[in-house]
């Protein structure tokens, strides 16, 4: 027949059979007769030990890795001491490696295995967080708690989205300043710094920009008066937490120390009757390269009198000057800025 047995606690149980006949003759002595024992079983409701995971840059274990930290190693190596189970014994391990922190552990490792390396890191793409999860199973079917090691993988450099300088041209006499603004992002370990090479405008080769938040960085710099005239390039790079460096972005500021020139090229007619219109032709140019900002026309009749101001886009033209109510000799001149 069958007998149902309910254990009263964890431990090892031995089961014996003993027959009795109708006149109360008993078979053997259960205290010492091993021939009567038919089975031994262990009741185990205690979970096995939890795996304690260590991680290294590779199987040589030259560099230990820290949980939840960015790295560039393509073949991280994980290991753990053999888990002990004092009752039913260790059966196997369940594990997971991938980017789903909520993944169910379905892959298994033999109980004799105590290390794991991802397959040539075809699994480490794209960059981001990877989770190595492992738990132990004992023979009785009890699972340990799950251990998770977060491996953050980054192989890409930051990207500079935009870089500008203002103003784009200046005369540095008088401690003029420029402001550099940069927007940079890094989808992995994050932008650690943004720097500008100011050597062409009298500064250092690696000057850090200030982090203004939301990927924006800025630097205000006073250009020395000693900087020579011409187009000056400023190279800008961004560096992330793993020292990957972005492609170089370049902005240009024009240093202009040469004053523009302007002249009246023709006056028609040279003699007029009061009330007629005088037409004055002029040209303006700027050899310094920053361009003519504006041109001013002055008349002189006992003293300078400003007449009109023209936008620098009008580097040449003809000015109609009315003479109604005027008499005498007048001088005209133009000044470019």
In brief, what are we looking at here?
The protein is 0% helix and 47% strand.
Descriptive notes:
The chain has 337 residues and is mainly β. The protein has strands at residues 11-16, 37-43, 54-56, 69-71, 77-79, 90-98, 107-110, 115-116, 128-138, 147-153, 159-166, 169-170, 177-185, 191-197, 207-208, 210-213, 216-222, 230-240, 249-255, 261-268, 277-285, 294-300, 304-311, 316-322, 331-336. A hairpin with an 8-residue loop joins β6 and β7. It starts with 10 loop residues before the first strand and ends with a strand.
Strand content: over 45%
Helix content: under 10%
Radius of gyration: 43 Å
- The H-and-E topology, N to C, reads as EEEEEEEEEEEEEEEEEEEEEEEEE
What is the overall shape?
A: rod-shaped
Distance between the termini: 115 Å
Strand count, sense and closure of the main sheet? 5 strands, mixed
Query: How many distinct beta strands?
Result: 25
- Name the structural class: mainly beta
Report the uncertain regions: none
Oligomeric state as shown: single chain
Strand order of the largest sheet: 4-10-9-6-7
Mean pLDDT: 87
Figure out the total of helices.
0
Task: Considering the chains and any ligands shown, give keywords for the structure.
single chain, five-stranded mixed sheet
List the helices and strands and how they pair.
Layout: E1 11-16, E2 37-43, E3 54-56, E4 69-71, E5 77-79, E6 90-98, E7 107-110, E8 115-116, E9 128-138, E10 147-153, E11 159-166, E12 169-170, E13 177-185, E14 191-197, E15 207-208, E16 210-213, E17 216-222, E18 230-240, E19 249-255, E20 261-268, E21 277-285, E22 294-300, E23 304-311, E24 316-322, E25 331-336
